[in-house]
Amino acid sequence: MDEQPLQVSRFEESERIPLSARLLLWWAKKRRRSGLLFHCAMRDSFRSVTLKWSIVSIECEGETLCEMTNTTIKRPMFIDLPPGRRELAFRVIRARKKMGTLFKEEVNLREGEIFIALCEPIQPNVFYRKSPAKDTWKVGQVGTVTRE
Q: What totals of helices (H) and strands (E) does the chain contain, helices first?
């Protein structure tokens, strides 16, 4: 797979995330779960077939942990992961193989930590919002809620 330009930035806890993902994050933190929170901002195109169609997935040691396409229900996903060190691969696959993107990151989760991966891939333009020019990822870790 050829490497296409992509934008990766760090997720900060002070940033706003979609409400559905924020609720899932709150739920996981409250229960002191360790794992991966994945949210992908995908829009449906008005055309049935487009070369910007994509599959967004996160893999760990060759196994797909979660994936989203234009046909799946667009909701955030939480995947339980035991604490420890692992390498995650973040992939966007397109109809044209050379248009896909991939990056890998080493993640070290402690008990109760959650790794957040937010993605907005290149998509068909819609009348209310322009598509990003590059696949955009925000990744980072957040800790547990402290009890008062």
A: 1, 9
- At 67, is the secondary structure helix, strand, or coil? strand
Q: How many domains does the chain have?
A: 1
**Mean of pLDDT values over 61-81:** 87
Range of the domain at 63: 6-142
Q: What CATH number is given to the structural domain containing 40?
A: 2.60.40
Strand partners, 67: 57
What's the whole-model pTM score? 0.82
Round to whole Å and give the CA distance between 61 and 8.
21
SS3 readout for 97-138: HHHCEEEEEEEEECCCCEEEEEEECCCCCECCECCCCCEEEE
